[in-house]
Amino acid sequence: MRRRPVRRAVPALLSVLLCASAVPAALAADDRPWSAAPAPAGTEAPGSDDRASFYLEGAPGTVFTDKLSVVNPAERERSFTLRGAGPWISLARQQVRVPARTRANVPVRVTVPGDAEPGDHSGAVVVSGEGREVRVRLALRVSGGPPLPALAVENVRVSGAGTDGAVIRYALVNRGNRTLTPRLAIRADGVFGTVLRRTVADAPAELAPGRVVQRVERWPDAPRLDSVTVRVTATAEGGVRAGGSGSYTPVRWVLPVGGGVVLVLVGGAVVLVRRFGRRGVGVGA
């Protein structure tokens, strides 16, 4: 008679264990990351084949409308904050609550002024929530003017040359009206020839009109006893090319001392020539 309560307790214990094992799975589903992207044309959530950013093109005075889709795959409701980063972007809502396992489509409007400068303009729709921030890029091309791509390399400076080498600093500037993908190369020439020739691997993937990027390049094996000229060259599609240079002498006394040594050697040679010349004249006489 005492064994029956034990038998009845077994199913109840199994039920408790099953429920306990289901809790971590539910929590894992709750933590699935949310996403934001331009709304797809269909009714499904954004997928790998959908747009990753907004791209708009039109004349000054055009009003563009689109939608941003915020997807919440979790088992609970989430709240998000939305804002436009860049010119002429406005959102229908600045706060949105997205139910569990669904999405919310928020209208986006871009109003291009009638006097907008032709060329490329960039911005983003920024979504924030639960400690994360997602920037959905927005690229706008205003038509009506000739394309004027232009780059500039400014303020080339070199410092250091200690045990950790030197550091090359410069500014890369887009001075045209087209977004460019620059390619960068660095060359340094010293007294005894070329001491550095490098292609920059991490050049900006995109440089919008008017944007300035401050760059820092490490030069671990920079010479310590040489005077060099460092030149940074930037190129882009359409034959765009620009360059900037800066001089670098790691040890300031190298040139004066070097010049002094040369003068001493030359002076000594002159003295010897004169002495031997006089002796030669005496012997011949």
Question: Would you write up a description of this structure?
Answer:
It is a single chain. By secondary structure, the protein is an alpha+beta fold. 20% of the residues lie in helices and 45% in strands. The chain is built from two helices and 16 strands. It has helices at 4-30, 254-284; strands at 35-38, 54-58, 63-72, 78-85, 89-91, 95-98, 102-111, 119-129, 132-142, 151-162, 165-174, 183-190, 193-199, 212-219, 228-236, 240-248. The longest helix is centred in the last third of the chain and has 31 residues, at 254-284. It is elongated. The N and C termini lie far apart (146 Å). The relative contact order is 0.11.
Query: Shape from CA axes?
Result: elongated
Helix content, binned percent: 10-25%
- Beta-strand proportion: over 45%
Question: Quaternary status of these chains?
Answer: single chain
Q: Outline of this structure?
A:
With 285 residues, this protein is of the alpha+beta class. The chain has helices at 4-30, 254-284; strands at residues 35-38, 54-58, 63-72, 78-85, 89-91, 95-98, 102-111, 119-129, 132-142, 151-162, 165-174, 183-190, 193-199, 212-219, 228-236, 240-248.
What's the SSE blueprint?
Elements: H1 4-30, E1 35-38, E2 54-58, E3 63-72, E4 78-85, E5 89-91, E6 95-98, E7 102-111, E8 119-129, E9 132-142, E10 151-162, E11 165-174, E12 183-190, E13 193-199, E14 212-219, E15 228-236, E16 240-248, H2 254-284
